[in-house]
Batch of 2 targets.
Target 1
Amino acid sequence: MIGDQENNGRCPLCGGHLSAGITTIPFIFADTAVLVKQVPAQICDNCREPFTIGAVTDRLVDLVCRVKNLHTEVSIVSYAESERVYA
Ligand SMILES: [Zn+2]
């Protein structure tokens, strides 16, 4: 039997094992799309679904809101670079 910590390391979608990694997450809106590269996430070994932790999610939402306001059709931004620019 393994403790709660290990249960948290399971994919909520398929139960696969999550590994720390870097991923690209697309945010699609009605009039724009924002692609965020280099996002630190827990990635499912089985279905490849990325999950971000709370602090990363908050920063992602903030970043996407800023970029969305530029009203470009497609934006590609780097999460890692945003930390330097906006920190
Ligand atoms: Zn999964």
Note: The two ends are 42 Å apart (CA to CA).
Target 2
Amino acid sequence: MNLKDIMNLKDKVALITGAGTGIGAATARLMAAEGARVAIAGIPAEAVQAVAAELTSAGHAALAIPTDVSAAAQIESAVAQTVARFGRLDILVPNAGIQLHTQDVNLHELPEEVWDKTHNVNYRGVYLTCRAGLAQFMQQGDGGVIVIVASVTALSGRSHNPAYMAGKHGLLGLTRYIAVHYGKYGIRCNAVSPGALERTPNHDIHPDAAGRAERFSTLIPLGRLGKPEDIAPFITFLSTAAASYANGANFVVDGGFSVT
Ligand SMILES: NC(=O)c1ccc[n+]([C@@H]2O[C@H](COP(=O)([O-])OP(=O)(O)OC[C@H]3O[C@@H](n4cnc5c(N)ncnc54)[C@H](O)[C@@H]3O)[C@@H](O)[C@H]2O)c1
């Protein structure tokens, strides 16, 4: 067996949500470089269109699909558009997420709207994305791969953003459910849990970005915050045949933060 023969995505079709920036965009770039045809879904439209244009002009097959993952009809349409363009779906990466730093506050003060808004994207949005992708996989009848982007906040109660944290815990349950109940169809589902990256989701509204960076750089054994390019290889690897026996697991990529 030769590693490079199984660790590539030649002729595979991937749909990634939240792919206009950050981890999703880095994953789209890497998957395209490994031979995949990539559907770049998410909002805002300009961001997904820019990533698709960049990949297309580099000679890759890419399709921008402006999609709000909290709207069932939009994510179902994104799967349909992917199949219409590329013929099938092999890999699904539910990655879109938000973090309402200043509003997702202590639980005894947490407004319901903030809980709902967060879960509509981070949890319900992943359910809707998985539902649409699984329906396509079941119709095709020859397996499929899902890599859900969770977070190290799913591993403890430490986070100061309870809605965000609880949603990420839920994603690990969803990962395990899909792994257990769809494994017999050749469908694998794993989670990747990034640690603290240099930019968080909704970084621009973080009330103390500099303080956060300083705090994490001392808490992370590797001494630095992560980058999207630190996470994309794990999502990509788990999507290849080289990871064909990985199912139901949570792969933590955090510079050692969660074991301190
Ligand atoms: N950055 C970190 O420190 C970190 C750590 C752990 C986990 N994560 C997770 O990684 C994933 C990607 O985050 P990121 O760090 O790349 O941040 P990011 O903000 O760059 O990426 C999130 C993307 O999702 C998009 N998005 C937001 N709402 C959406 C919606 N309703 N429908 C479709 N797309 C929507 C955003 O516009 C953005 O492009 C998220 O699920 C996040 O929770 C990030």
Note: The longest helix spans residues 162-182.
